[in-house]
Amino acid sequence: MNTTGHLKQQVLPHMTPVPLTAPRRALDVVVSLVLLVLLSPLLLVLCVVVRSTSGGPVIFRQRRMGEGALEFTLYKFRTMRQDAAGPGLTGMSDPRVTAAGRLLRRFGLDELPQLFNVLRGDMTLVGPRPEAAELAHRYPPQYHWVFRHRPGLTGPCQLRSRSDAVLLDGRPDPERYYLEVMLPRRAAMDAELLAHITPFTVLRLAARTPWYLLSAAWDRPRSSRAGAAGDVARCIEGGRS
Length: 241
What we know:
By secondary structure, the protein is mostly helical. The chain has helices spanning 3-8, 22-38, 40-54, 99-106, 114-120, 133-136, 161-168, 174-196, 199-214, 225-240, and strands at 59-65, 71-77, 124-126, 152-154.
């Protein structure tokens, strides 16, 4: 039975969204606006780097699944060749990624334009990873609940992006591997986060994100599930205090 093909044909229904609390939305607006102002020189430099090293558009736009299963346009710095084609998921050693793009991805700099998505209300600072719409339509029904929530710029899953990218390398069908093997773990991490999320949890995870990004300079990605579970437990436990 072709399970992946069956999932691809599913139509994801609209779902009742779980709205953000007023304090969390206020936090999103303040933090994203402040970061956009403070990081504006870096954003301009990155625009020049992307344009000068690979030509073509600086910003990559993609439809992602948002709150209530409503799609939105997500913004990133383009890290792949203009003629790149292939799976919707990107491994650590994906040959489609440019030299400059590989550096941007390793340090998460390609994600900075998503601060505009947070400011607009498409995303929140901390939440589930924003899934590509095409892949979201292939989710098994038992994981559709995640699309009731607003996706986040960072979160426990995003703080394992390097290790997860390593897991996708060399897979003959990375999307199927993601759906069948990685998705259950990621959904469990998101469920634990969303069950206990508070403004303090948001600030705690947001504060950990720069350290995680900087650690790319010396840290080798790990794929240990035990390590992931420990990271999430520490994040959530801190948010309860």
